[in-house]
Amino acid sequence: MIVMMVAGGKEQEEIEKELAMAEEYIPLTYAEYEEGLSRGKLLGLRCLSCGKITCHPMPVCQWCGSRTMERVELSGEGELLTFTVIRVAPEGFEAPYIPCLVRAIEGPILIGRLELAQGDKEASQALIGKRVKMSGTYTHEGDKFSGGAHLCPVFKIMER
Amino acid sequence: MRDVAIIGVGHTKFGRATRSSLELFSEAALQAMDDAGVTGKEIEALFQGAALPGFEEGQVMTAAFSAAELNLGPIPATRYEGACASASVAIRDAAMWVASGGFDIVLAGGVEKALTMGTAFATRTFAMSCHSPTEGPVGLTFPGVFAMAARRYAVEYNIPLEDLREKMAYVSIKNHRHGALNPLAQFYKKMGDLKVEDVVNARLVADPLTLLDCCPFSDGAAAIVLCAAEEARRYTDDPVYILGTGQASGCALSKMEDLTKPVSRVQSSRMAFKQAGLEPKDIDILEIHDCFTIAELIALECMGFFGWGEAAAATAEGETEIGGKIPTNMSGGLIGKGHPIGATGASQVYWIVKQMRGDAAKGNQVDPVPEYGMTDTLGGDFGTLCHLILGRSRNRSRR
After folding, report:
1. Which residue, among A29, A37, A74, A82, would best test binding to B if mutated, counting the most B CBs under 10 Å from its CB?
2. Which of B141, B152, B252 shows the shortest C-beta gap to A90?
3. What is the pTM (predicted TM-score) of this model?
4. Nearest-CA neighbor of A95 among B49, B219, B205, B395?
5. Which domain, by its residues, includes B35?
6. Which one of A37, A59, A135, A159 has the minimum C-beta count within 10 Å?
7. Residue B220: strand, helix, or coil
8. Do B137 and A91 touch (CB under 8 A)?
9. Whether ipTM exceeds 0.90
């Protein structure tokens, strides 16, 4: 007669519970962040330890590493830190277009695209330091390497 | 931990290769093994940098197949991927394994066939070492990253952008001058006499960087043989010792507080200096990661060879040429020599070793031969940084 030896072990329900808790380690997913962008909302996280804002989302505060953060909506306003005009595009993109870095008034730096009324003709060094505001999004339809379509914020120079 | 020596080096011609990656790496590896006078039976492990082989030839797990091609036996063979710093992190880990006593003799290096992919697909795959979730949809490219850094550099140090572009041009002029003298370089006998106007008026790739501010896509391989320092003189009269190594990691571009002072580059170089017990003033020659002209300036400052904002003017004044404060990229660097990304770190080490043996090409050789040399390799947009400090003697004490 074969006797199966069972030496303890953990209940499946317990393991499932641990899994559900681990999923909460990500307080704002990229998918939720992009879904926010698609509705014109710039979502981020406010740290309950240091008070600073993390955006794009991370599982821990980008400033102090704390894991207690709450979701917030950023204004989308900031200062243009730098930009470039891409003249030679990767496969799947059409030049010219203008990537930029923006220092949000809430603190973090954001990456996105800059939209200029005159296009790349208007792209001069004098733009750096100007006030910008998120005006919409750009959707890259994606290719076989990108895991589907993805969005980024688009910024516009604010009228003075 | 034991001291580690480089006892053999090998390097293919950089440029467009008709041979496969496996053949390119074998060519560099066999040259390095012959240079060291070691047989395949003596090699205990292989550490190989290769960034994008899956996209180039539909081949991953390249290290295992390289070991097999070389008939090294069923030794551990590992592929390292740190984008353009792949070979440097492979060499650093190889040195760690030998230092720890885990192995006595190992082969390290790297290979890439990027030119094979063509510009549009190569640009797409290179951009995969940007932060995909946020930089992917933007369509950011590496020239784009460094173009944004150049604009910040102009702002931070209050230099009119056109003045900065002219100063950056001197990096390209210098590196092409030396690349044109290097028979293994992609641009051997080409563009050895560029003028500032040639660089600033070339086709724009990402404003304000022109084609001549950028390194090319390249195919090529380089390899080295490392062994425990106490055994080195059994193999060669000219061992070169690895005195210090550093490695650091960056982040998404938007989490970097200052593109002109990347923390990863500062941290990695400091780690290497600390381990070597040396300072920038002790170093006689540099091979640094000039993927773009502005990148060479940022590297020189992060590593402590010039103060913040001072490398641009110093380069224009010839301080990074032979006879200047610190000869930099006398091989031609990435701009003049070519940049097969997975091989670049090993190529940098190759050329420092050649300099230390007095065997660099005429016009590129520093005289007297350098006592201490250093490499700087950057992967991605400051995502992986690696520094290696090499010396002709095991003596780490300052001169």
Report:
1. A82
2. B141
3. 0.97
4. B205
5. 4-118+217-234
6. A159
7. strand
8. no
9. yes
